[in-house]
């Protein structure tokens, strides 16, 4: 059975002091995941204790295409092998990639997914963050239009938060992987790995970066990820 993809927008707050370990995320305390779910039991007995999808690791090529690399990892996992990052970039027609752009790519390749976000459209408040400041004025109209046309295009966007517990249960079901937008600076402090040369700046503020969450171990309370900006 092919996994269903989940999209999460901006999940790690830069100010979160809780620890991330190894090649995994052992805690996700996100911008999105602020409200606990009341209708999902904590690791129901029927769920396995751990599950990991075999996902090929694909490195990003440029500074801006980590999201495209994550989409490509999903496509390779479900057997779509006639695609590459330049092809996905051509379909997007922009180098300023937002999560909604990834949603349209997944929809184009008939991948079943749900998109969770607490902001419907481009949040103008992001302009205070240097990572967004340069591109945001140009992106506001384009991104808002993509959101407005999403329902007509058959894209499932759920404007709500989702807890880390919900993510773990979905992954343990063996049916889901997730593309998540995180703060790369926070991630890089704890992942002992070799970054891809030349893809990250020295910006000390929030730096948006997409990763693919492809597994979870309930015993260790850790998420397995594939980071397109690192060696694995």
From TrEMBL:
Protein name (record): Protein GUCD1 isoform B
Pfam families reported in the protein's UniProt record: Guanylate_cyc_2
PANTHER family xref list: GUANYLYL CYCLASE DOMAIN CONTAINING PROTEIN 1 GUCD1 (PTHR31400), PROTEIN GUCD1 (PTHR31400:SF1)
InterPro entries, per the entry: GUCD1
Protein species of origin: Glycine soja
């Amino acid at each position: 059975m092919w996994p269903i993809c989940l999209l999460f927008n901006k999940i790690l707050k830069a100010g979160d002091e809780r620890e991330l370990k190894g090649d995994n995320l052992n805690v996700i305390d996100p911008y999105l995941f602020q409200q606990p779910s009341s209708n999902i039991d904590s690791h129901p007995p029927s769920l396995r204790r751990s599950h990991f999808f075999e996902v090929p690791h694909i490195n990003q090529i440029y500074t801006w295409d980590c999201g495209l690399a994550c989409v490509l990892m999903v496509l390779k996992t479900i057997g779509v092998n006639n695609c590459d990052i330049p092809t996905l970039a051509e379909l997007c027609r922009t180098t300023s990639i937002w999560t909604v752009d990834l949603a349209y790519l997944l929809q184009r390749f008939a991948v079943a997914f749900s998109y969770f976000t607490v902001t419907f459209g481009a949040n103008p408040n992001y302009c205070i963050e240097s990572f967004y400041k340069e591109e945001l004025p140009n992106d506001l109209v384009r991104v808002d239009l993509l959101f407005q046309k999403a329902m007509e295009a058959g894209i499932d966007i759920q404007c709500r938060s989702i807890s880390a517990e919900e993510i773990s249960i979905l992954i343990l079901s063996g049916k889901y992987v997730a593309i998540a937008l995180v703060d790369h600076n926070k991630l890089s402090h704890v992942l002992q790995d070799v970054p891809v040369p030349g893809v990250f700046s020295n910006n000390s503020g929030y730096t948006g970066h997409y990763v693919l969450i492809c597994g979870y171990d309930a015993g260790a309370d850790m998420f397995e990820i594939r980071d397109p900006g690192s060696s694995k």
